[in-house]
Write a structure and sequence with these properties.
By secondary structure, this protein is an alpha+beta fold. It has six domains: 23-170, Galactose-binding domain-like (Jelly Rolls, Sandwich); 175-277, Immunoglobulins (Immunoglobulin-like); 310-507, Alpha-Beta Barrel (TIM Barrel), CATH 3.20.20.80; 640-749, Immunoglobulin-like; 757-830, Immunoglobulin-like, CATH 2.60.40; 834-1045, Immunoglobulin-like (Sandwich), CATH 2.60.40. Helices cover 17% and strands 34% of the residues. The strands form 13 sheets. It has an eight-stranded parallel sheet with strand order 26-25-24-23-22-31-29-27. Residues 1-22 have low confidence and may be disordered.
């Protein structure tokens, strides 16, 4: 064991007491593996397993044991691009020699550094390191083993510059939290949780009497549940365990934090932990199918059953099953029987139909130069369709699967997001550039073989299982929610083979689907799913066999940087619960699967930042609030035999469900906003529950119940009838038919009242804003505002008043308007921020040469964070495919815009009015910054008359400009230049627009947004880079980023996402 010298200990204590930095180790969490391992062994992949080892260590009393071949990685660390860092570990072998290396990587794998491969041979501790210069802001560190075996590792360190002489603990005390849980921190109400706080004193020289431990527990709304401080008494030991028995007395999610205080100053924190308490799951009634499931369940774990997950899926690819013709590897389905015994219902997805094994490809495809080139460039991700003569092999493979596993499969899915894996397949896009559906998908060239694969698979399944449930196509959100819900990929497939399958699954992701404190609100699920469900059912009615539909996969990703932001977490759980309620309350929707169980925090998920999982982390995953919300909504919508929708108000959704046991449940929510609901009277035994399943406080006035309603669903539960309950409900409503009718009648007799006043903010600059107040009533109102104390504001009926205010400095702030009768309207506003556009230090010539731009780019888009659609199947690989830098400046007369675009191929064969359907630049302005006011107060959607939207492109060799929105003339040719450098794969755009045409003035905020479309094959745009939402996927100028024309010289990019 390593010993600290007295000098090091003394220096550490002095540094602590003098408020100086606590050492040079930049890694998060316990770098010595004494109290927890999840901060550094956050994720394991390729088979490697980890566990804490207390028998041997280099530092302290524990180390990390790594066994099997594979890799581990830590949580991300913020670094400074351009600075040099060194990552080091200590390691030793336990068994036979093992080859290994250490790695440092950006979470999006944009920059990866590894040490030389070394062989661990000795049972003595040895140090290994790698020094690198950071190119990105975020990195994780890790370790890879290239051979089976077992090693110990300890004392991880990330420091600036070169390797130091000794490992140094970054904090004087390490802390770790766990809950003695075998069920991924998921508890039932009668199971008290034990909160274990492990503490390790890493620095000698700190007096024991100075060290205190502070424990804080909060619920999903940020309310304090427990706050306690204890003295940490190490005595002669360096390790202490403090425990609490936690019984919250209610259901839900609870965040647990622990801090070490020395002399009243916080010097160390444990990685944030969380746990959930949920009701026991509902047993599915005889004769009914379950409704709630999860997609992405290649592995299951015990907590899933606890929260009511019933449906799980397993993906199968033909290319993996039958690598050698006639030889099948069904190992991916080995767990089906075990899952069935555990009570799960199995969906097996024969996904990505272009993924045929290479031996099944047509000879002319396999030997084509295009296929060879795509394989070399690693752009043939899913493969291609089989030759028509190999369909018989496809059928034999299906027959073998049904014969071996048919008794354990409840739904067969044929296809999976093939609108992207086939319709956006690089091979077909390049081979058939002019064959597009809606200028987006390729489909006609392979439609016959695709339809044949679906129909023949269905026939083979039904030979052995005549009543099998078979889903076909399973399109992504691009096909099912884009293109005005027209299903341009699925429709021709339905026309060909729509009667061969009896279910229509889909993955109706919306756009934007990311929830972040840095982004506008994500799409509202109600507005998406209402249309998607309607069109999907119409497809089956018109071309199929009246198929039932279901959500095979849907989710909203949260920004990993916001996993401790209560507002972000609640927005996700509210949308998840409402997706299940919308699906359950729509006739002929069979089930709903959320994506996904667990997000691995190392790679950070989709488009670098966004995570979908109900749990976070690979090693000791922590539940998100959506875990508890999933359990609660499952209890409302399982075992439903009948559904009724109550149309009480256009802005309120009410669904009532009859249960198999005679009970009834209901849900009430608003897609947007807040209000109140007045019930005529409480029924006997009626429970009204929050989104976590807890009874809400009831406010009774004159015998009536006033209930606040909003975007978080409220649940109503009424048990099956009994004599006394029936009598009480008959006296209340004059009805005793059944609980379902009683609950439906009660809710239909209720009243809804929304706020009397609407409020919205228009930012003028970073200091001031206009506050708009709209009176929504037919009577005059007298109002006071907390932002303008002492002032009384008179609002005329149905009129709007504009008030100038100083913008609060907080990122999020509240405005409270109180009417004379005491009623209040509250609204939270998020400070949008206004970015500056500066003047250039030199005259700018519009010539397609950016050498006269003496400033850094205003916006850089160099990664998948800006990709639209954001689906992983979209074939963007790196900045050679598309990478963008945008420059903006101004002078007395003009606004100048320029862009430098990396693009390895340039095509645009469109008409000028559709120049967006090829390589092009599109941008838009909200010059008066009034779109948010128009949207919120006047219900105006899309652009106003004073907004502008332009597009510019090089059509063949001629620069072109088009204006889809806005008054006035187009900039003339002398104000636009576009140049293309084919050799270096670079396109330069440069233009200027008169400020008087845009009506943009200095020192006044305006909205601006931009997108760049990419066409790699000459058949039309395939995807785009979007600075922010609001141009593609529907015009929403209210969410445009805000800018202001400022004097001076700018020095930094704007990073919007």
């Amino acid at each position: 064991m390593r010993r600290y010298s007295k000098l090091i200990a003394l220096l550490g204590a002095m540094a602590l007491l003098s408020d100086s930095a606590m050492g040079g180790n930049l890694l998060p969490g316990d770098t010595s593996f004494e109290t927890e391992t999840s901060s550094l062994a956050t994720r394991c992949w390729d088979g490697l397993k980890t566990e804490q080892n207390k028998e041997d260590s280099f530092d302290g009393a524990a180390s990390l044991k790594c066994s099997r071949k594979g890799s581990i990685g830590s949580r991300a660390v913020d670094l400074i691009p351009g600075k040099s860092y060194t990552f080091s570990i200590y390691a030793k072998v336990l068994e036979r020699p093992v080859k290994a290396r250490i790695l440092v990587a950006n979470p999006a794998w944009k920059h990866t550094v590894t040490s030389d491969t070394f062989t661990l041979k000795s049972d003595k501790w040895s140090r290994h390191s790698v020094t690198f210069k950071a190119k990105e802001k975020l990195y994780f560190v890790g370790l890879s083993l290239f051979e089976p075996g077992a090693i110990l590792t300890d004392a991880w360190q990330l420091e600036e510059e070169a390797l130091s002489q000794e490992y140094a603990s970054p904090t004087p005390v390490f802390l770790g939290i766990d809950f003695d849980s075998r069920f991924q921190n998921t508890f039932f109400p009668d199971e008290p949780a034990t909160i274990n706080i492990y503490a390790y004193k890493a620095w000698a020289g700190i007096k024991a009497e100075d060290i205190k431990l502070e424990l804080k527990v909060k619920d999903y709304l940020g309310r304090n549940i427990l706050n306690e401080t204890r003295k940490l008494s190490f005595g002669k030991s360096t390790h202490v365990l403090e425990t609490w028995t936690f019984r919250p007395g209610k259901l839900g999610w609870f965040e647990v934090k622990a801090d070490v205080l020395i002399n009243g100053k916080k010097v160390a924190s444990a990685p944030t932990a969380s746990l959930v308490f949920v009701s026991r799951p509902m047993k599915i009634a005889a004769g009914l199918k379950p409704f709630c499931g999860l997609a992405g369940t290649s592995e299951t774990f015990p907590a899933l059953k606890r929260i009511g997950v019933k449906w799980v899926e397993t993906l199968v690819h033909w290319s993996e099953v039958e690598k050698k013709r006639g030889v099948y590897d069904w190992s991916s389905l080995d767990s089906l029987a075990e899952r069935k015994e555990e009570g799960y219902w199995n969906i097996v997805t024969l996904a990505h139909l272009p993924a045929a094994p290479e031996w099944a490809w047509a000879e002319n495809d396999a030997k084509s130069e295009l296929v060879k080139k795509l394989k070399e460039d690693k752009k043939l991700r899913w493969g291609i369709f089989p030759d028509k003569d190999k369909i018989v092999d496809w059928e034999k493979m299906l027959a073998d699967m049904v014969r071996k596993f048919g008794s354990d499969i409840d739904i067969y899915e044929i296809g999976g997001e093939d609108d992207l894996t086939a319709g956006k397949n690089e091979y077909y896009l390049k081979k058939y550039p002019s064959s597009r559906a809606r200028d987006y998908f390729v489909i006609e060239p392979f439609l016959d073989i695709y339809a044949k694969m679906i129909s023949s698979a269905a026939e083979e399944i039904k030979k052995q299982k005549p009543n099998a449930l078979i889903g076909g196509i399973r399109p992504s959100g691009v096909d099912s929610t884009g293109f005005n819900y027209e299903f341009p990929f699925s429709t021709p497939v339905f026309k060909k083979c729509g009667k061969s399958f009896n279910l229509f699954p889909m993955d109706p992701y919306c756009c934007p689907r990311y929830i972040s404190s840095r982004l506008p609100k994500a799409s509202i699920p109600e507005y998406i799913l209402d249309n998607t469900f309607k069109k999907a059912l119409e497809l089956g009615e018109k071309y199929g066999c009246n198929q039932k539909i279901y959500i095979s996969e849907k989710g909203y990703g949260i920004d990993y940087r916001d996993v401790e932001c209560i507002d972000v977490l609640n927005e996700q759980l509210n949308r998840m619960a409402r997706i299940y309620l919308l699906s359950r309350s729509t006739p002929n929707v069979l089930l709903c699967n959320w994506f996904c169980p667990v997000s691995k925090e190392v790679a950070h998920g989709e488009n670098e930042f966004y995570l979908y999982g109900l749990w976070m982390g690979d090693n000791n995953p922590r539940p998100m609030p959506a875990v508890a919300a999933y359990s609660a909504v499952a209890g409302v919508i399982e075992n439903v035999t009948k559904t009724s929708l109550v149309d009480l108000h256009s802005q309120v959704r009410i669904a009532v469900f009859a249960k198999a046991d005679g009970a009834a449940s209901a849900a009430v929510w608003m897609p947007e906003g807040k209000g109140e609901m007045e019930l005529p009277r409480k029924l006997s035994n009626l429970q009204i529950l929050d989104v976590m399943g807890n009874p809400i406080p009831l406010k009774i006035t004159d015998g009536k119940l006033d209930i606040p309603i909003g975007e978080a669903p409220l649940y109503f539960k009424l048990p099956s009838p009994s004599f006394w309950n029936d009598l009480g409900n008959w006296l209340t409503l004059g009805s005793s038919e059944d609980s379902f009718k009683n609950l439906e009648q009660l809710l239909s007799q209720s009243k809804v009242s929304l706020s009397l006043i609407d409020m919205e903010i228009q930012e003028i600059n970073s200091e001031t804003a206009n506050l708009f107040l709209k009176n929504k009533t037919n009577t005059a109102l007298s109002v006071t505002l907390d932002l303008l104390p002492g002032q009384k504001i008179e609002l005329l009926p149905l009129k709007t008043k504009c008030l100038s205010i100083k913008t609060p400095k907080k990122e999020k702030w509240q405005c409270v308007a109180e009417i004379a009768d005491g009623k209040k309207t509250e609204k939270y506003f998020k400070r949008k921020g206004v970015s500056s556009i500066y003047q250039n230090s030199a005259k700018i010539d519009i010539d397609g040469n950016l050498s006269d731009w003496k400033m850094p780019p205003l916006v850089s888009m160099m990664d998948r964070a800006h990709l639209e659609p954001p689906d992983p199947h979209i074939p963007w690989e790196n900045t050679e495919d598309l990478g963008v830098k945008v420059f903006m400046s101004w002078d007395k007369y003009y606004l100048y815009l320029a862009a430098e675009v990396n693009d390895d191929s340039h095509f645009n064969n469109s008409e000028v009015s559709q120049l967006y359907n090829g390589d092009s630049w599109q941008f838009a302005f909200d010059p008066q910054n009034n779109a948010s006011v128009n949207s919120a107060l006047n219900n105006q959607k899309g652009y106003s008359d004073d907004d502008f939207e332009y597009g510019v492109a090089l059509l063949k060799t001629v620069p072109a400009i088009y204006k889809w929105q806005g008054r006035g003339r187009l900039p003339d040719s002398k104000n636009l230049a576009i140049t293309r450098d084919e050799q270096n794969g670079k396109t330069i755009y440069e233009m200027r627009i008169p400020l008087k045409d845009l009506k943009i003035a200095p020192d006044k905020a305006f909205g601006f947004n931009t997108v760049f479309f990419d066409d790699d094959n000459g058949g039309g745009q395939e995807y785009c880079f979007a600075f922010a939402p609001g141009i593609t996927g529907g015009k929403k100028p209210e969410v445009f980023p805000k800018f202001i024309l400022s004097t001076g010289v700018g020095t930094q990019d704007i990073e919007h996402r």
